[in-house]
UniProtKB/TrEMBL annotation:
Superkingdom, taxonomy of origin: Bacteria
Name the UniProt record assigns to this protein: ATP synthase A/B type C-terminal domain-containing protein
Annotated family: Belongs to the ATPase alpha/beta chains family.
One GO CC annotation: proton-transporting ATP synthase complex
PANTHER family membership: ATP SYNTHASE, ATP SYNTHASE SUBUNIT BETA, MITOCHONDRIAL
GO molecular function: ATP binding; proton-transporting ATP synthase activity, rotational mechanism
Source organism: Halobacillus locisalis
Domain (ATP synthase A/B type C-terminal) ranges: 244-322
Subcellular compartments: Membrane
Ion transport among keywords: yes
Length: 346
């Protein structure tokens, strides 16, 4: 079947405040956002919704719907990201978290890993005083306070190299990010990360507008120190749409989501009454969910000095095989502690 999806870059360019504009013409912001990330398939979308979006963008349906294009996944070697919300190359990724949930560590780890793959990181510093930004800029050569200097760097580097561009939400709100992305429309090598240093993004439904990748951080995982604290159910990516994701990956991912969703439902019962009060089938499901949650934690290279653990990189195919084993019960004999903060199953 031919892959079709929304031309998100065109929508972002033509309708900067897309979710607000959508609401003004009777469209649900959640529906528009889910269409942009691929969570809702265009094939299951009402024609009137697509027509309304085309009218907002002042374009034809043929311009709005892109056929046959595939989003390329940037493999990070971080298990939970690659499984649940793959990074879309050339797209825009938004990190949604409150301070202290580990988003800066994840970002620093991404920089560390992608720099070794030949990517150049360009950071546009946030407005105001944010000393925590030093946690992600240490060792980077392209850090700018001036937007024009950042623009020039991206346009110069992006001709021959892949670029990771990073900006704070303040630059989204004042329109700077949109203006830059309009200039870089021809540079398919630029992947943008949007972060919110103030931690206000969590309180808004669509803090960054349309995104290709959303990494939602989970306060429960962070409180239990299960890092990276990426929410497995709320994080998503346009790479998941249609044929963009390999069928094996998609199948494993959906099984893992179902397992973790049911496990989370059972946790409240277990906390009060204990696991032994569950029926045998639910006990088995709960314990496998617990093992999967533990396995998806991972030691980072940038945190070695603090944790004393060596960073681990897990290739996609090996991670998928490990997750399959956990879901199928092949390691039911292993304890949760054995699976916490490891790389591959051994």
């Amino acid at each position: 079947m031919e892959s079709i999806h929304l031309n998100v870059s065109l929508l972002r360019k033509r309708v900067p405040q897309l979710t607000k504009a959508a609401k003004s013409v009777g469209l649900r912001p959640a529906t528009v956002s889910n269409l942009c990330t691929g969570k809702i398939s265009i094939a299951r979308t009402e024609v009137r919704t697509l027509v309304a979006l085309a009218n907002l963008a002042d374009c034809s349906l043929d311009e709005l719907i892109v056929r046959g294009e595939r989003y390329e996944m940037i493999e990070t070697g971080i298990k939970t990201l690659d499984l649940f919300a793959p990074l879309a190359k050339g797209g825009t990724a938004g990190l949604v978290a409150r301070p202290g949930m580990g988003q800066l560590v994840v970002l620093a780890e991404i920089f560390h890993r992608l720099k070794s793959e030949g990517y150049t990181v360009v950071v546009l510093l946030p407005e105001g005083d944010h000393p925590e930004v030093n946690d992600i800029t240490e060792g980077l050569d392209h850090v700018y306070e001036d937007i024009d200097e950042a623009d020039q760097a991206v346009q110069s580097i992006g001709v021959d190299h892949d670029v990771i561009f990073v900006a704070d939400r303040s630059h989204v709100q004042n329109g700077n990010t949109m203006r830059l992305q309009e200039k870089w429309a021809s540079l398919t090598s630029v992947t943008t990360f949007l972060i919110d240093f103030k931690g206000e993004a969590v309180d808004e439904e669509f803090p960054f507008g349309p995104l290709e990748t959303v990494w939602q951080f989970d306060s429960d995982l962070a409180a239990r120190r299960l890092y990276p604290a990426i929410h497995p159910l709320y994080s998503t990516s346009s790479v998941l749409e249609g044929s963009n994701l390999e069928q094996h990956h998609f199948t494993i991912q959906q099984k893992a989501k179902r397992q973790l969703r049911r496990y989370r439902e059972l946790r409240s019962i277990v906390r009060i009454n204990g696991v032994d009060t569950l029926p045998e089938a639910d006990q088995r499901l709960y314990k496998r969910g617990e093992r999967l949650e533990a396995y998806l934690t991972q030691p980072f290279f940038v945190a070695e000095h603090f944790t004393g653990q060596k960073g681990e990189n897990v290739p996609l195919n090996e991670m998928l095989e490990d997750v399959r084993k956990i879901l199928d019960g092949a390691i039911d004999h292993r304890s949760v502690d054995e699976l916490t903060s490891i790389g591959r199953l051994t």
